[in-house]
Write a structure and sequence with these properties.
alpha/beta, binds magnesium ion, single chain, binds adenosine-5'-diphosphate, 12 strands, four-stranded antiparallel sheet, six-stranded mixed sheet, Rossmann fold
């Protein structure tokens, strides 16, 4: 089976700082992969490269078999235009630590914004789908509320629904619960667990080891710009081989 997302020998620098080194990675349809590792190890940059929020300096990334940022014509590759990049980026949804909802729009208006304005789909159809998504994240009754009237956990669940409304083939989560008060973390992880059980392809950068253990099919450990170990949650969390993984896991468990 072809992977939904694949990275091959990915390299990324910020000036002299080589932040992603020889990253080889792939995720199959329906898989949930958790990415863990110390702060500054390159986890966010990796997700941002997949979603073309950063350019890459070497190697390549494919989404649904298409090389990200390029169009193939014959055996030549051409850079995509900004407009083409915008279309390609719709294949992957991203949820950030901070949920940037439009404050002056209702929950429903936030969720239908992308499908209506960007994808130019019929409003009635988008509304019906948005209501179903709000049902999935447990917020159908908040459809006409404004973001400021919601808790942080509720806002993040709306942000997840908004991202799903674009019908992406995969979802990237970058520490989606780390800006939340502790009592609100569970409701967001619960929604992510539901998405996983619905077969959503997900890459989840998280410090929530419980989520990795219960929900992830595979855990990837990054350190200093490299994937240093990957395996099943048991492999990585119970029986890590790499000493840096051992030290990290024993510190967070
Ligand atoms: P993580 O998400 O694992 O904490 P990041 O991907 O945010 O790590 O950062 C990896 C490295 O890249 C760090 O050294 C960080 O300082 C650097 N970095 C990240 N974003 C930028 C940027 N926009 N400009 C310069 N350096 C950056
Ligand atoms: Mg980060």
């Amino acid at each position: 089976m072809n992977p939904i997302i694949q990275a091959h020998q990915l390299q990324k620098h910020f000036g002299n700082n080589h932040v992603l080194k020889d990253i080889d990675f792939s995720i199959q349809k329906g898989e949930v992969v958790s990415v863990i590792g110390p702060s500054g190890s390159g986890k966010s940059t990796f997700l941002r490269c997949i979603n073309q929020l950063e350019t890459i300096d070497g190697g390549y990334i494919t989404v649904n078999g298409e090389i990200v940022g390029y169009r193939r014509q014959g055996n030549k590759l051409y850079h995509l235009s900004d407009r083409e990049i915008a279309v390609q980026r719709q294949a992957v949804g991203m949820v950030f630590q901070r949920f940037n909802l439009f404050p002056h729009k209702t929950v429903l208006a936030n969720v239908i914004e992308g499908p209506v304005v960007v994808q130019r789909r019929p409003v009635a159809e988008c509304k019906a789908e948005a209501m179903a998504l709000l049902e999935t994240v447990g917020l159908a009754e908040k459809a006409s509320a404004y973001p400021a009237q919601l808790s942080g956990g509720q806002q993040q669940r709306v942000a997840i629904a908004r991202s799903l409304a674009m019908k992406p083939d995969a979802m990237l989560f970058d520490e989606p619960t780390s800006a939340l008060d502790p009592e609100l973390v569970g409701e967001v992880l619960g929604v992510m667990k539901t998405l996983a059980s619905m077969g959503t392809t997900m890459i989840v950068v998280t410090h929530e080891i419980g989520f990795c253990r219960e929900v992830a099919n595979r855990v990837v450990f990054m350190d200093q710009g490299r994937i240093v170990e990957e395996g099943s949650p048991d492999d990585i969390l119970k029986f890590p081989k790499n000493p840096r993984v051992k030290a990290f896991v024993s510190a967070v468990l």
